[in-house]
Amino acid sequence: MKSIRHFIEYCLARILLLLVDTLPFGISCLVARGAANLWWVFDHRRRKVARDNILRAGIETDPKRALALARGANHHMALVIVESLRSRKILTRDRFRDHLEIKIKPDVLAALENPDQGLIVASGHFGNWEVAAHFLSRYKPVAGITRRMNNPLMEKLVQSRKSAHRFRPIPKRDRNSARFLEVLENKEILALLFDQHATTHGMIIDFFGYPAATFKTVAMLHLVTRAPLCFGSCKRVGPLKFEISTSHLIECPPSGNKNEDIRSILNQLTQYLEASIRQAPDQYIWGHRRWRD
Amino acid sequence: MSEKSKTESIIRKLREIMETCAMEELDWSKYGPDSTIESLGLDSLTILDLLYDVEQELGVHLEARDIVSIRNMGEMASLLIDKGA
Fold this sequence. Notes:
Order of helices and strands of chain A: HHHHHEHEHEHEHEEEHEEH
Largest sheet of chain B: none
Number of strands of chain A: 9
Radius of gyration of chain A: 19 Å
Order of helices and strands of chain B: HHHH
Helix content of chain B: 55-70%
Number of helices of chain A: 11
Number of strands of chain B: 0
Strand order of the largest sheet of chain A: 1-9-8-2-5-3-4
Number of helices of chain B: 4
Strand content of chain B: under 5%
Structural class of chain A: alpha/beta
Shape of chain A: globular
Structural class of chain B: mainly alpha
Distance between the termini of chain A: 39 Å
Oligomer: heterodimer
C-alpha cells in the first residue's frame, strides 16, 4: 500500500516538474500560487501559527494585516519551489548576472575565492536559500543539511535535481559525527540554516525579543575549526531576480567561556537574520513554531 | 613520564571532559585506548563540545583534518601528545 502511495506521489511530482520545466515562468508561478491558496484554505493550524508569530515579532500589530502577510509568505514558499527548480536554467555562467545582484563583503569574497579555506555560511528560511546555495557553488562545492524524504522515489528525484549544481546533501542525523568537519576539511562551503526550533540541544537566544531555542552547531564549528563564518541571505527583488548579500566575517576566537562564545555568535547571526526579515517580512517562513513556551 | 603513562593520563583527562559533554550517562571507566569514537556516543554537536573543552583544558588546538582521521581514544591521545599536550 505504501509503495503505491509513493509511486503516486512520485508521478505527481514528475508532472509538476514537467510543468515547471516547460511552462513559461509566469504561468508556473500562477499554478504554484493556486496550489498555495488551496493549502492555505485547509491548513488552519499553520495559518494561525504564522499570524501569531508575525504579531509576536511585532512585524504587524493588526491581526488582519498579520494574516494577509502570512498569506503572502505562503505564496512566497510556493515561489521558492518554482524558482529553485528553475535555478539551473537562470544561473548559467553567461546569464546569472541578469538575475543576481551580488553584495558580498570583500572579506567573505576573499574566503570564497581562497581554495585553501572552507567557509561556514549561516542563514535562515528567508528569501530563496536554494538559489543562494546554487550561486555559492560557483566558487566551491556546497554542503548543507537536508532531511531524507520518507518516499525513496521522491528522494532519488530530489537528489538528481540537486546534483545539477555542486550541492552535497548531508543527513541531519548520521553515525558519522565528523561529517560537518569533513566539509570544512575539504575546503568546501558548509551552508547551515540555524533558525528552526532546536529542542533540548539548543541555546536560548532572543529572536525578535522572545526567547527561542537556537541550534548551536554553526557557532561551535567556527569556535573549534576557526573556519571563517558569515551570515548570508538571498532576497527576491523581482521576478527571478535576487539580491545575494552577506555580513562581514564574524570573528570570535574561543575565550574559555564556551556558553558566552556561542551566545555571542548566535546573537550576531540572529540580529542579521532579523534585519533581513524586516526588509521583506513576506519572504520568511512564519508558519514554523519557532517559539515554544 | 613514560609514553604509556602519558597516554593513560591524557585518556583519564579525556574521560573527565567527555563526562561533562556526553549526552548519555555512560560508565567511562570502561573506555580505554581501543574504544572507538562511535562507541563513545558522541554526535556531531557533542564532538565539537569535546574539542572545545580539549583545547581549553589541554591547550591543544586540533585541526579539522586531524579530527576526521581519528578512529579511537588511543589515537586521539597520541595526537594530543604529538601536539604538545
